[in-house]
Sequence to fold (230 residues):
Amino acid sequence: MKGHVVIELKNVAYSYGGGELLSDISLKLGSGSFHFLTGPSGAGKTTFLKLCYMELASTAGVVKVFEKDTRTMNRDEVAVNRQRIGVVHQDCQFLEHLNVATNILLPVMVSGRKRQAVTENLQSLLNWVGLENHAEALPAELSGGERQRAALARALILSPDVILADEPTGNVDWEMSSRMLNLLIELNKMGKTIMIATHDLNLIRTAKSKVNARVLRISNRRLQLAGADL
Fold:
């Protein structure tokens, strides 16, 4: 773990509908660190990520984001801190009537930032994810891998410090999975904190040959360091 702590969970639990989904979770994500989050389907990986980006509030314990207790944040403080966290969702939802460039810029429109300052970086971001020729395309015209890369570009448009990716390669072939992984590794080398929730052990093994990644596993509602056999 490098640098200061950007997200910290202390004895966190989350319950829903009378049942506990996560229990006694403690973790520190350091600036510039790279983590994988694994575990069986339904174990709570998505719930864990939602706690990290403040879409859900813990039912016990403390969650700190950029050294601030999320329980004491007002709505404006939550909004500001969320802008520092880019999220790549598994389902890659877009507004289908808007072109790719406009979909990528949606976080800018809701953030209150000046659009001109950010849009100047849009073309270089499109180039970086390999979508420079798809800016005017509608989401329905993209392949699965292109949609995933557009989702990554949208998560990066506000230059966040942390990127949380929920099964970002779950619906694409291995070639595209490798490309997505390499983009995320590049971001980590630029100093970004990365956490990827995945069930793909091949992806984890490939990453560990390229970057110092820590692998965590959710099992029986608890978080543990995965074994070295991955």
Remarks:
- The longest helix spans residues 174-189.
